[in-house]
Design a protein that fits this description.
This protein folds into two domains: about 150 residues, no CATH class; about 120 residues, no CATH class. It is globular. By secondary structure, the protein is mainly α. A four-stranded mixed sheet has the order 1-2-4-3, sandwiched between helices. It contains 17 helices and four strands. β3 and β4 form a beta hairpin.
Length: about 325
């Protein structure tokens, strides 16, 4: 009887502990601001003298030049031809359609700011010594979804306008890629980009499929901790039925990797084949998602964290994939 009475108390203490952590995270002062380069750039569209150009250079700094040369490829803003080339880009019918849709979907960017702020508050809680990026948005002309610098993450909003937007199909975007061109994917994609910049894949050792799927699993595990209220399938970039396939077939997928002796292959093409975007995981099932082995990495890392109880920064400093596999005692 006494043991039964203890159960509600233990549950209450656990709940209070969770609430206390979330309260600490919510109290973190993080005035995240999204700078809308996409909106500001339109001031140059019909201004033949480009009067706003100096203020844009000052506001966006080196990111402005990265955008000009690396994303929309119009050249440096100091070029005498810059304004003319930029205005032709902004007036292009496809780019104009993108701007109109961006304004429709993101005229109110408060929900996006709130979600990114919550994610980076969690990130700051778990990584108190890490830096937080500036966040810039732009229209890429359907080039780059994200741009990472040492101090910023740029988000190409025209790549997140909803997977049912007809122009994506007209541009020839494959269905498996279109699915993740949704507003729901911005926060996971943004934080993932920053994480991979802060914690790049270790160099110097031999890279194989095991080390790659564990690295991807670490990133996904951290995303899950930092974005706890978002459905897991949105963090993974899977359709709900694809996530269910992974749950139902975890054991079979792990056995496939072992039986086919894939874990220690070092050929970059094969590693990319299993960890990169694809309509499905080759050799497994057409019902599976591409990157299904990254789900195995996520599950393996989750198991390791239960066993080791290490911190997230310590997890990212654990570079021995075989040791992590051994200590995880992963057996789906």
């Amino acid at each position: 009887m006494n043991a039964l009475r203890l159960i509600p108390c233990v549950c209450l203490l656990w709940l209070c502990g969770c609430q206390s952590q979330e309260q600490k995270i919510a109290a973190i002062d993080l005035p995240l601001v999204i700078e809308r380069l996409d909106n500001d750039l339109l001031r140059l569209r019909d201004d033949t003298a480009c009067h706003a150009l100096p203020s844009l250079r000052e506001k966006y700094g080196t990111f402005f030049e990265y955008y000009n040369t690396g994303i929309i490829h119009v050249g440096e803003s100091q070029s005498a031809l810059y304004c003319d080339i930029l205005q032709r880009f902004l007036r292009h019918p496809i780019v104009d359609s993108a701007y109109r849709k961006v304004h429709e979907v993101y005229s109110d960017d408060r929900p996006l700011i709130d979600e990114l702020t919550d994610a980076f508050r969690h990130f700051t809680f778990y990584f108190p010594h890490a830096s937080i990026p500036n966040i810039y948005t732009y229209v890429s002309g359907f080039n780059e979804s994200l741009m990472l610098t040492d101090s910023a993450v740029g988000i190409g909003l025209d790549q997140f306008l909803g997977n049912d937007w007809p122009l994506y199909t007209q541009l020839g975007k494959a269905a498996y890629l279109r699915y993740n061109m949704r507003p729901e994917r911005i926060t996971p994609a943004c934080l993932q980009a920053w994480l991979t910049g802060e914690y790049p894949e270790p160099s110097g050792g031999e890279s194989n499929l095991l080390s790659q799927l564990i690295y991807e699993g670490k990133i996904l595990y951290i995303l899950r901790q930092c974005i706890p209220r978002k459905p897991l399938e949105d963090i993974l970039g899977f359709r709900p039925e694809q996530l269910q396939w992974c749950i139902d077939n975890e054991r079979q997928l792990w056995q496939y990797l072992i039986e086919e002796k894939l874990l220690f292959v070092t050929t970059p093409f094969i590693i990319q084949k299993y960890t990169g975007d694809a309509p499905f995981t080759a050799g497994v099932s057409q019902e599976s998602p591409g990157r299904a082995v990254n789900w195995i990495g996520y599950r393996l890392v989750s198991r390791y964290m239960k066993q080791s109880k290490c911190s997230l920064p310590e997890l990212m400093q654990m570079h021995n994939a075989q040791q992590l596999l051994k200590e995880a005692r992963y057996s789906p």
